[in-house]
Amino acid sequence: MEQTLLLIKPDAIERKLLGKIISRIEETAIRILDMKMVLFTREMTEQFYGEHKGKEFYNKLIDYMADKKVVALKLEGKNAIKKLRNLVGATDPKEAKENTIRSDYGLGTPQNSVHASDSIESAVREIEFFFGD
Questions:
Q1: What does the pLDDT look like over 69-108, one tens digit per residue?
Q2: Cβ distance 125 to 3 under 8 Å?
Q3: Measured between alpha carbons, how far is 89 from 75 in angstroms, rounded to an integer?
Q4: Whole-structure pTM over 0.85, yes or no?
Q5: Bridge-partner residues for 35, per DSSP?
Q6: Among 3.40.50.300, 3.30.70.141, 3.50.30.40, 3.30.465.10, what is the CATH number of 2-131?
Q7: Which residues of 61-92 are buried (b: 16+ CB within 10 A; e: fewer)?
Q8: Hey, which residues are catalytic here?
Q9: Domain segments of the chain: what residues?
Q10: Hey, is 87 helix, strand or coil?
């Protein structure tokens, strides 16, 4: 079984989409192991997205995410990372396939409603970041 992380971003929380997004996860073979709401401080945000520092979108992403609440979900399932990435869709909601979370709920970038781990290494690091596992 593979573990992965999903973050529900501030735009989705503000638009009261938590239940809809969580329901989409529950409709799959991916199981929710743990979940928590966290105030994502600027320091936490910069640390979490540190690998993107220096990239064109970094400052916009940090400004958007910092000092707002996010919901972190620790998930598990067979090929969970790939399945979750398919469910959330492309980073830019305009490019996401129809009926994905980002195509249905994303407003743009970085307001694309969710973040999902993109590899086993990222999942391990991101789960540790939020859940200390």
A1: 999 999 999 999 999 999 999 999 999 999 999 999 999 9
A2: no
A3: 17
A4: yes
A5: 73
A6: 3.30.70.141
A7: bbebbbebebbbbbbebeebbebbbebbbbbe
A8: 115
A9: 2-131
A10: helix
